[in-house]
Design brief:
The chain is mainly β and 173 residues long. Helices cover 0% and strands 60% of the residues.
C-alpha cells in the first residue's frame, strides 16, 4: 500500500520524491510449506528519489529506501532492517532522442540482525549485495516508456547471487 508520493522540483533540472509504503501479508501462510504466497510479516518502507538532468542528454538518478520489518508470528523470526539504493546514469543519443542507454544498479545493506524467538541469529545473517549492468529506456512520449536492464550481482553476503533481467514500463492512467 503506497498512499502518497510527494514530489518537488526546485529547479527544472532537479527533481525530488518521497513517500512511504506499507507491505501487508495477504494470503495463506503455512510455516511447513517450502513456498508461500506471502512472507507473513508487515514491513514499512520510506522511499526517496533524486533525479538530476544537467543537460537534455544526461540523467543521473538515485533512489534510496529504508525498510523496517516486523516479526513473522508463525515462525517467531524477524528479518533485519534494510537500506537499499537504486541508481542509474543514462544518455540520450542524438541520433535516436527517444532512446536512453546507460548503467543501472543497486546496493543493499541489512543494518540490523535477524532474530529468532527474540534472540539474535548467530552471526546476524545480515544481507549485503551490489549489482550493476546495462540499461536501455525507450520513451514513446514524456509520460510513457519501457525499460530493459540486465543486472549482475557481486559482493553478495548472506543471500543468493545471480543475474536479473528487468522489464519495466510506465504509462499514465
Amino acid at each position: 500500500v503506497t498512499p502518497l508520493y510527494l514530489t518537488w522540483s526546485p529547479t527544472p533540472d532537479l527533481h525530488l520524491l518521497t513517500g512511504f509504503s506499507a507491505f501487508i501479508p495477504l494470503g495463506d501462510y503455512d510455516r511447513k510449506d517450502l513456498v508461500n504466497t506471502t512472507n507473513n510479516y508487515y514491513s514499512y518502507a520510506q522511499e526517496f528519489g533524486l533525479t538530476w538532468l544537467p543537460t537534455p542528454a544526461w540523467e543521473f538518478s538515485v533512489s534510496p529506501s529504508i525498510t523496517f520489518n516486523a516479526k513473522n508470528d508463525a515462525t517467531d523470526y524477524k528479518s533485519g532492517d534494510v537500506l537499499n539504493i537504486d541508481f542509474n546514469t543514462g544518455y540520450r543519443l542524438n541520433s535516436a532522442p527517444n532512446l536512453q542507454v546507460g548503467v543501472a544498479g543497486f546496493y543493499t545493506k541489512q543494518f540490523s540482525d535477524d532474530e529468532l524467538d527474540g534472540h539474535k541469529v548467530p552471526g546476524g545473517n545480515r544481507l549485503s549485495k551490489f549489482a550493476i549492468g546495462p540499461q536501455a529506456v525507450y520513451y514513446f512520449n514524456p509520460a510513457t516508456a519501457v525499460v530493459f536492464k540486465l543486472l549482475h550481482e557481486t559482493s553478495v553476503k548472506n543471500g543468493p547471487k545471480g543475474q536479473s533481467l528487468w522489464f519495466q514500463f510506465a504509462f499514465p492512467i
